[in-house]
Write a structure and sequence with these properties.
This protein is mainly alpha-helical and 407 residues long. The chain has one domain: MFS general substrate transporter like domains (Growth Hormone, Chain: A, Up-down Bundle). The chain has 14 helices and no strands. Helices cover 81% and strands 0% of the residues. α1 packs antiparallel against α8. It is globular.
Amino acid sequence: MKEGPAVSKYAILGILWIAYLLNYVDRQMAFSWFPVLRREVSFSETQLGLIGAVFLWSYSICAPFGGRISDLLSRRVVIQASLAGWSIATIATAFSRSPGVFLFWRGVVGVTEGFYMPTAAAILATVFGSRRKGKAMAAHGSAQFAGIALGGWLGGLLAQTWGWRAACCTMGLVGLFYGLVLAWKLRPGEPAREGRAPAPERFEMSGLLVAMAAAYFLICAMLWMLYAWLPDTIHSRFGLSLAGSGWNATLFLQISSATGLLGGGVLGDWAGARWASGRCYLVAAGLLVATPFAYAIFLAGSLPVLRVCSIGFGLFTGIMLSNVVPSAFDLAPAARYGQVAGSMTLVGGFGGGVATLAAGALRARIDVSSLMSGAALAGSLAALILALTVRHHFKEAVVWPALLKQA
């Protein structure tokens, strides 16, 4: 990172935002192609479920490894290699003639994208520092929701206009071109310096991190059931076109999620500056309020009701998601940020993969709304357990040092 002048931290945020947008457009487009893939490539319902599961499992398994690599090597180079890798794999997907080949390349996309998020999160947390990392990471995360909305709509539009293969080639070439821009401009400067207590010297597992990981597992399970199966549900229930189904399944959910994410980032920085437990309680509260909306989405009998439920779920999910990784970073040294972010990605991706595969494999016997009701109930319980664990953890952090001094 020594060559060339460093750019401002806000320029770094903008550069990474666009890269993350492309990341999510590439992964999301395939969920708008389910009706076409059934017809043209002979996908079964279980194989359609594997489109999400194979991607998420390969992505998640590689994320801790990619995060640790980014802690040891140049984070800028890791970002560049990840972008080039997933763009080439997206182009290769266009040449799939069978479900097996398609799923193989989805796995390669997952492996290469798995290096991106932990590395980008580590860069932003280091450059912006503790007092602003929540807002910076939330702003970066808003690209996720923009990419999902754009991918759902664009994937359906291109599929019904030129075909899904053209969509793969187009987005892969866009990614390769942007890789040149990223290589030219992404040059992080010095880390932020703050007059605060030093971060922990070691990363140690605790009951709080386990409870937070369980909560993250469940919110990702609900999110990916919506991402993978809501377009197809809308298409079959309301008779909309592929583009219309993708648009209704993603737009309202992603706008509200982005709003919650940005607001949650600001709220998290404010709460974290006042209480050590502030960000953690926001994670628990966001999950608890989001779960009833998740269940109601698949029960909606009309598009307006479905949109309202999507907005409610997205808003509180965004508040939760904006504080999960920053909360984990508060418990770890900066030299381990990539590993921490990668580990949380592994947990969330595994949850999403299990949910999408289960929805596809069991759909003939159990509808998606029943699976979502179980996930929502588990999410509510996990939120309550997390809140109790936060209270216990930070009570110990405050009380035990005082008792030791008295002794």
